[in-house]
Design brief:
The protein is α+β, with helices and mostly antiparallel strands. The chain has 2 domains: 3-43, Arc Repressor Mutant, subunit A (Orthogonal Bundle); 63-134, Alpha-Beta Plaits (2-Layer Sandwich). It has helices at 3-14, 20-27, 31-43, 77-84, 111-122; strands at 63-71, 90-95, 102-108, 127-134.
């Protein structure tokens, strides 16, 4: 990936609906050249998908938390993923180093909804304990740490 590819990716992160012509004007290439590069970035897996960023609060998902999860036994990441997948409030999950085994990002409509999701998480086989941190406000929410020109 060269500097032009990084610049193209930055443009797409800012506005995924930008046309190849618009991106080309910014990066100094023709629209067909931008399209070829975007196609190559997709084929190589650098760009995995195009998506819309949603305002979760406007959709009614006003409560979010990060939950540290510790398991009783040695649980593989694949089993953790399989166990979490049916809980729709889980929007992301990360295996981590440190005292806990997993950090789970939960979004819910309100505190009661969060508590219900947390109870489903706690009921998973081998969960020993959880520790929740409720998000009060979001200060920075970047789509990706790409080079911004």
């Amino acid at each position: 990936m060269d500097d032009i590819d990084q610049h193209i990716v930055s443009c797409l992160v800012v506005d995924g609906r930008a046309s190849f012509r618009e991106i080309g004007e910014i990066v100094g290439l023709s629209a067909p050249a931008v399209k070829r590069r975007v196609d190559r970035l997709q084929a190589s897996g650098v760009i995995s998908s195009f998506t819309a960023r949603l305002d979760q609060g406007a959709l009614g998902w006003n409560t979010q938390a990060f939950v540290n999860v510790t398991f009783r036994n040695n649980v593989s990441p694949a089993r953790m993923q399989e166990a979490l997948a049916p809980i729709p409030e889980v929007v992301a999950a990360y295996t981590v180093s440190g005292d806990s085994d997993l950090v789970v990002h939960i979004r819910a409509s309100n505190m009661q909804h969060f508590e219900q999701a947390l109870e489903r998480l706690r009921a998973l086989d081998s969960v020993d304990r959880t520790e929740s941190t409720i998000v009060l406000s979001t200060l920075i929410d970047r789509p990706s740490p790409v080079d911004r020109h």
